[in-house]
Write a structure and sequence with these properties.
The complex is a heterodimer. Chain A is α/β, with parallel strands linked by helices. Chain A contains nine helices and twelve strands. In chain A, a hairpin with a 2-residue loop joins β11 and β12. The model of chain A has no long low-confidence stretch (mean pLDDT 91). The chains are: A alpha/beta, B alpha/beta.
Chain lengths: 248, 495
């Protein structure tokens, strides 16, 4: 699915990722944890193709060289990023936005555009999955949404676009316990043999629900430790300092 | 009285770096740039009393109209051209313009079938539905090619309700008393330089009269097109809504691609009597010139309505995407008690286009309300200025005025400028003005792209969302057209 080899990324000559390696196979859920400033969000944006980074290294995604692709081409190839800070789009309804995006993605994948009726049916179905009130569908994208509603909207969009690899960038931050459970259950329902998730988080809470197959610790631009879900528990208990000491 | 914000707020962004992608859209091709090969009846270039007499005689006008034209011309000669706008207007040689061009052989038409096939194909290319489907669409069209009105559809059907919808020339012939009563009453020929010029040389235009108590059952619409080279277009539109009448009117404009600049100086006058309502919408797509500012239409237009009757309402909606230079301020004089004026505008300045547009409103009587929503979009090297005057007379107790003025910048070589003016002479007026300026942030584009939308589609979506409040005010079928136009003007991928 995804193979990252020796990935470096810098902004204004300041190195952030410093030789990162990561491999994700179909059906797997990976979690990346790490202290603030370790490069977690940078990793997600470098994978999604945000402009402004100076990137070196190799990233293969389902046989394609990911770093050669424009952001929309990565989306067509099946990569999705749930943003930590989703933007607002005034005057553009969620419905309109999703219809444009989904038909574009379908078109690129060789599928025909959906009939209006079919589209609405799918949309209602996916909204229910994350308990997003249908009234949000006719509202402008993220405009006036609370933090939790924005995050739920991200997962709703993810469900609509049905990606092969979904990156969740601190989707749990700013969520109360109930919202966290709803989001986690939504993701859980979308898990399949042929798709994968990369979950970036500070906290164990989300991982309690998602039960990742593999947990990585990202520190100073590199993955310094990889383990199973017990690693997350260990981090919860001990923090990152013991690893830092070991690492240095 | 509350004024949130009174000083001019110029926002200029003139960093030299090029945003290649944004500029590419801003400079893409003009879709309506074809030239029709129609035999023209053109008066030789130049402006003089003789030319004005020729136009008037050619149109077989009554002497009062000729006198009015000549007074306007003599007044125009005494006026300097206006220099106050935020525009760079190259000197215009008024002797190098032909003031009258008409398709030849313009014998009276009895039906659409008799229309010159070239003219018809011109309008077909523009996507103007002159045929039977018009009835279904509920649109009646008056088409003005260069100087004369070519054909007016559905006149008979409207006549059954007593509605007059015809070319201005025909109105002068058939309804001289109505024309004489209202012509120049809202925009006198002394009003401004281009209004004076128009009054002297105007060739044709549209005339609408809605009788007492009649709701016009269909959208009325005029399409203007400048086709002949070296000509100017000077049309005049006069709409009168009698007591309790209602009319919704739309004009659309295009012109061929030519390397020279062409002058379009129109005048529109609206008169709303007691409890009547006039909605006037414009989708303006004159040829904007190329990326280097060569060619394009100078669009210098005076539009004003007067809410003469009590509880009357006038609403201007404009989508301005074309023209090299736009200079227009659709205004409302709120003369009747409890009258309402509205102004909704989207103005786009891409490539090397310049727009100085906005509105004036003058509150004269009591309990008057005015609402303004202006959305400017600047791209390429485009310069977009909003200019708004709010004047509340001493007599206008309990006046309310709300203005919202937003600017959107794309790329870093364009500019947006806001010039609000307030003259408040009545202490209980409530006047609010809000202005915002934003850029299409890279983050917003990136977000859309991450969802699979290519940059151009993302921009079209964002811009249409930004302009939605105004586009929603257009009649449905024209809103669709305007959305497309905005997308085309910015994208290059559509059409």
């Amino acid at each position: 699915m995804l193979e990252i080899i020796d990935l470096h990324a810098s902004v204004d000559d300041k190195p952030i990722l410093k030789g990162l390696n990561l491999q994700i196979r179909p059906g797997e859920v990976h979690a990346i944890m790490g202290p603030n400033g370790s490069g977690k969000s940078t990793l997600s944006h470098v994978l999604a193709g945000r402009p402004g980074y100076d990137v070196r290294g190799s990233v293969r995604f389902n046989g394609q060289d990911l770093l050669d692709l424009a952001p929309e081409e990565r989306a067509w190839a099946g990569l999705f990023l749930a943003f930590q800070y989703p933007v607002e789009i005034p005057g553009v309804s969620n419905t309109n936005f999703m219809r444009s995006a989904l038909n574009q993605v379908r078109n690129q994948r060789g599928l025909s555009a959906l009939e209006a009726g079919d589209f609405l049916k799918i949309m209602r179905e996916k909204a229910a999955l994350v308990q997003l009130d249908p009234s949000f569908l006719s509202r402008p994208v993220n405009l006036g949404f609370s933090g939790g509603e924005k995050k739920r909207n991200e997962i709703f969009q993810m469900a609509m676009l049905d990606p092969r690899l979904a990156i969740l960038d601190e989707t749990d931050s700013g969520l109360d316990i109930d919202a966290l459970r709803i989001v986690a259950e939504g993701v859980q329902k979308l898990r399949r043999e042929d798709n994968s998730f990369l979950v970036i988080t500070h906290y164990q809470r989300l991982l309690d629900h998602l039960k990742p197959d593999i947990v990585h610790v990202l520190m100073d631009g590199k993955i310094i430790r990889t383990g199973d879900h017990t690693l997350a528990l260990e981090l919860e208990e001990k923090g990152y300092d013991w690893l830092k000491a070991k690492f240095v | 009285m509350r004024v949130d914000h009174t000083d001019p707020v110029p926002v200029v962004n003139d960093k030299p770096e090029e945003d290649v992608l944004l500029n590419k859209w801003a400079e893409q091709d003009y879709e309506f740039g074809f030239i029709s090969n129609i035999e023209q009846d053109i008066v030789p270039k130049g402006l003089s009393e003789e030319v004005i007499r020729w136009i008037s005689a050619h149109k077989e006008e009554p002497s009062w109209l000729l006198d009015w034209r000549l007074k306007a011309y003599r007044h125009w000669l005494t006026m300097p051209s206006p220099q106050w706008a935020h525009l760079e207007i190259p000197a215009i040689d008024f002797q190098n313009i032909s003031y009258y061009a008409a398709p030849k052989a313009n014998a009276k038409l009895n039906s659409l079938d008799e229309l010159d096939p070239e003219i018809k194909s011109t309008y077909d290319k523009l996507g103007i539905p002159l045929e039977e489907q018009l009835i279904l669409a509920g649109v009646a069209v008056d088409a003005v090619l260069d100087s004369v009105s070519v054909v007016t559809t559905y006149k008979e059907k409207l006549a059954e309700k007593g509605i007059i919808f015809c070319s201005f020339s025909e109105a002068v012939r058939e309804h001289p008393e109505l024309v004489r009563k209202h012509l120049g009453k809202v925009v006198p020929y002394t009003d401004n330089y281009y209004a004076a010029l128009n009054s002297a040389v105007f060739s044709d235009g549209s005339f609408v009269y809605i009788p007492k108590g009649v709701r016009c059952p269909m959208e009325l619409s005029t399409y203007f097109r400048i086709n002949a080279a070296g000509t100017g277009q000077f049309e005049r539109t006069l709409i009168v809504a009698d007591d309790e009448a209602y009319v919704s009117y739309l004009e659309g404009c295009t012109a061929p691609k030519r390397d020279e600049n062409q002058l379009h100086a129109a005048v529109v006058e609206l008169v709303a009597l007691n409890r009547s309502e006039i909605r006037y919408a414009t989708v303006q797509n004159w040829y904007p010139g190329d990326a280097n500012g060569i060619g394009g239409i100078y669009n210098f237009v005076t539009k004003r309505g007067i809410c003469q009757g009590v509880s009357s309402k006038i609403s201007w909606t404009q989508v301005e995407t074309g023209s090299a230079i736009t200079w227009k301020y659709p205004s409302v004089v709120l003369l009747g008690d409890r009258s309402t004026g509205e102004f909704y505008s989207v103005a786009l300045a891409a490539r090397a286009q310049q727009a100085d547009t906005g509105t004036k409103m003058i509150h004269i009587c009591k309990d008057t309300t005015r609402r303004i929503v202006s959305k400017g979009i600047s791209a390429g090297r485009g310069q977009n200025a909003y200019r708004g005057l709010v004047k509340v007379r001493e007599s206008a107790t309990n006046a309310r005025n709300y203005s919202q003025c937003d600017s959107l910048l794309m790329g870093d070589r364009c500019g947006a400028h806001t010039y609000p003016y307030f003259e408040i002479n009545c202490p209980d007026a409530q006047v609010e003005h809000e202005a915002t300026t934003s850029k299409i942030e890279e983050d917003l584009l990136y977000y859309c792209q991450q969802r699979g939308l290519p940059t151009e589609e993302a921009i079209a979506l964002i811009v249409n969302g930004y302009a939605k409040e105004v586009l929603d005010k257009l009649p449905m079928e024209f809103a669709v057209e305007a959305r497309k136009l905005l997308a085309i003007s910015l994208e290059g991928s559509v059409g």
